[in-house]
C-alpha cells in the first residue's frame, strides 16, 4: 500500500514536470514565431531603403539640384495715381513720373527717420521733396505753395513760393536766401523765383564725379541721384550720396514724398535697393500698419 502511494506521487510529479516543460516549450515557440513575424514585417522596409539608396547613388548628378523658391513681396509703396496732376503720367509699376504736374507717394512719412531716392532719368523742369495732400498737384513746380517743400531743377529750395536756399556751385555750398531757415528771419521772404533751367552752371572742381552721375558741377544734372532724408525735425537733400547742406526746418503736417515734372523731365523714385544708401539711422519708407 505504501508502494502504491509512492508510485502515485511520482506519477503526479512527473506529470507536473512534463506540463511545466510543455509550457516553457510553448512560450519559446510563441516567441520564436513572433520574432520571425517581426523580421518578415520589416524586411520589405529594409529592402525598400536599400533600393532607394541604390537609386539615389545611380541618379546622383543626373537629377537637378532641388532649390527652394522664395517669392519676394513687392514693395507696397509707390507713386499714387489717386493723388497726381491731371497731366502726369505714371509708368514702370508706379515708380516713374513724366508729363506735367505733381504726384505724391501712397505712404506718408510716419516713422522717425525715413529716406528715399530719386533718379534724374531725363532733364527738364523738376521738383523733388515732401508735400501734404493739400498741395496743388496741377502746377509744374513744387514748393510754390505752403503745403510743399522742394528742391528744384533751377537749384532753388522752395517753400510757399519763397527761396529758402540757392545752390551756389561757385562757392561750394548752398546760400541761404532770406527764407524761413535764415538766422533772424521773422517774415517769409519774397524773393522772385526764376523757373528757367540753368543750362551752363559754373564748374565746381572740389566735388569728384561719382559713378552713375555727372557730379562735376556740384549741382544736380541728368543721370544724378537725389536722396531725401526726413526725421520730423529736418528735411535734407543729398546729391549722389553727398549732403547738400540745405536743412529745411518747420515741415508741418502729414507729408508724403512728392515729384513734380515738366518740359520733358523724367523722374524715377527709388524706395529700396538704394544707389547710395540712407544716412546712419535712416531707413526706407515703411507702411503704417494698424493693430487689430
Automatic annotation (TrEMBL):
Residue stretches of biased makeup (Low complexity): 202-211
User: Which segments carry the region annotation Disordered?
Assistant: 202-222
Q: Which InterPro entries match?
A: B30.2/SPRY_sf, ConA-like_dom_sf, SPRY_dom, SPRYD7
Instruction: Show where the SPRY domain sits.
Output: 111-275
> PANTHER family annotated for this entry?
C13ORF1 PROTEIN-RELATED, SPRY DOMAIN-CONTAINING PROTEIN 7
Q: What is this protein called?
A: SPRY domain-containing protein
Amino acid at each position: 500500500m505504501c508502494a502504491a502511494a509512492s508510485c502515485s506521487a511520482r506519477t503526479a510529479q512527473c506529470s507536473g514536470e512534463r506540463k511545466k516543460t510543455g509550457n516553457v516549450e510553448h512560450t519559446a515557440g510563441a516567441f520564436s514565431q513572433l520574432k520571425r513575424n517581426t523580421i518578415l514585417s520589416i524586411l520589405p522596409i529594409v529592402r525598400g531603403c536599400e533600393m532607394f539608396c541604390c537609386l539615389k547613388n545611380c541618379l546622383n548628378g543626373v537629377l537637378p539640384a532641388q532649390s527652394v523658391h522664395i517669392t519676394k513681396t513687392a514693395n507696397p509703396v509707390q507713386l499714387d495715381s489717386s493723388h497726381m496732376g491731371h497731366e502726369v503720367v505714371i509708368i514702370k509699376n508706379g515708380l516713374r513720373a513724366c508729363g506735367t504736374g505733381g504726384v505724391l507717394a501712397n505712404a506718408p512719412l510716419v516713422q522717425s527717420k525715413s529716406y528715399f531716392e530719386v533718379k534724374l532719368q531725363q532733364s527738364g523742369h523738376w521738383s523733388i521733396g515732401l508735400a501734404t495732400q493739400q498741395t496743388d498737384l496741377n502746377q509744374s513746380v513744387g514748393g510754390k505753395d505752403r503745403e510743399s517743400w522742394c528742391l528744384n531743377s533751377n537749384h532753388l529750395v522752395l517753400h510757399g513760393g519763397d527761396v529758402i536756399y540757392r545752390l551756389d556751385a561757385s562757392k561750394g555750398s548752398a546760400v541761404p536766401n532770406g527764407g524761413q531757415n535764415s538766422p533772424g528771419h521773422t517774415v517769409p521772404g519774397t524773393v522772385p523765383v526764376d523757373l528757367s533751367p540753368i543750362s551752363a552752371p559754373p564748374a565746381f572742381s572740389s566735388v569728384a564725379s561719382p559713378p552713375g552721375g555727372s557730379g562735376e558741377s556740384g549741382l544736380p544734372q541728368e543721370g544724378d541721384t537725389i536722396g531725401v532724408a526726413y526725421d520730423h525735425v529736418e528735411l535734407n537733400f543729398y546729391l549722389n550720396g553727398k549732403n547738400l547742406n540745405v536743412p529745411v526746418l518747420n515741415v508741418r503736417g502729414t507729408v508724403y514724398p512728392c515729384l513734380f515734372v515738366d518740359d520733358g523731365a523724367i523722374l524715377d523714385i527709388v524706395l529700396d535697393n538704394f544707389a547710395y544708401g540712407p544716412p546712419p539711422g535712416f531707413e526706407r519708407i515703411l507702411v503704417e500698419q494698424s493693430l487689430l
